[in-house]
Amino acid sequence: MRAVELCIVAGGAGIHRRPCFSAIMPKFRQRGRRAADAVARRGVKIGEIVVGPFAVRSATSQLRPQPMSRSCLSVLFSLVACGGAVASPIADQVAFSHPQQMVDIGGRRLHLYCNGTGSPTVVFDAPSADAGWSWHAVQPAIARRTRACVYDRAGLGYSDPSPLPGTSGNAVADLHKLLQTAGIAPPYVLVGTSYGGGNVQLYTYRYPEQVRGLVLVEPEHEDEMARLDRASQGRWSQLTAAQAAIWPQCVAAAEKGFVPGSEAFLQCTGGIQPVYGRELAAARLAVETSPGYWHAAASEQAHFDVSRAELGAARRSYGDLPLVVLTRGVSPFAVPGKPQSELNKATERENMAMHKEVAALSSRGSQRVVPGAGHIIQQDRPEAVVRAITDVLDELRP
């Protein structure tokens, strides 16, 4: 089958070194060109979209086709893909390989990991179906300047599951309760990517007195599905419908028990990812083969429309809040070595337009394109995220 532009795939779990798990979640790592090519041959073509467990990656001409990432699963719904990830020092990763602080927020616990001292506290939220370890290449650098906290949403990472649906509104309520209970007092600078970018925007609207700055990394927009579907001439809705069946397959496989090395194991988890050190890779895989993880991830995916509606209902000006919006510099839809189609260019323009609109909601807002980065910029170009956060912190100096 010919891989063409707007290639999206479904796969497993993980954010690093994998193109996007486009229809379902955000995270699969590289399993090698042979596996990617094999899955590409089994893909299903819908219009100009190849639907399958993996997508042909187009970050740069040097990059090979890669298995798709679950971070991209959320990406699927934000019409983006992942670029090539940069591994952080192993020493920085070890702290993410086990629970740090489990905070009881009322009958269930959320995982919190804070490092560093100072104010304001920088709080990070991860992409859909991902956990605090998404920020392993960024949080340690920020912690050298001020207190920096990552957390895991309910049912993801090391956090306990929630009986409530996986919506942005429920995530914001959980985060608010978590910070209160843990004694992490405001002010905050909030940092979120993709779905997490929508969550931190909603938090800012609900608790404006607590937030002093925002860094939005390829953030979710309340109208992105309709606008990107128009830009892609309906291809996006075809894709989401075709891939809706993949989630329950991974949930069912997790409930039955993944067999290491099996097709279901590789498609749904991505297997061991070399971008991680041994300890973090093992911890991630243990979490992302559990039924609880897949139920929580599937709940977020199933309630994307609700989450976007919550953000849309809250939408208003940010006033003079320091705000930086980071946009990918690498189109996930271009086939390496071939000119980008007008359809793909239109999709990229629409993504850029939405980010510019969000940045314009603050008189101190700015939008930056990050060269060489795909959708999960903190994996591809962590230094760009560190710089954006640092710039916001500098603006807040007395």
From TrEMBL:
Keyword line: Hydrolase
Gene Ontology molecular function, alphabetical: hydrolase activity
Name of the molecule in the record: Alpha/beta hydrolase
Family annotation (InterPro entries): AB_hydrolase_1, AB_hydrolase_fold, AB_hydrolase_sf
Positions of the AB hydrolase-1 domain: 131-245
PANTHER family linked: HYDROLASE, PUTATIVE (AFU_ORTHOLOGUE AFUA_2G14860)-RELATED, MONOACYLGLYCEROL LIPASE
Species of provenance: Pseudoduganella plicata
TM annotation in the entry: none
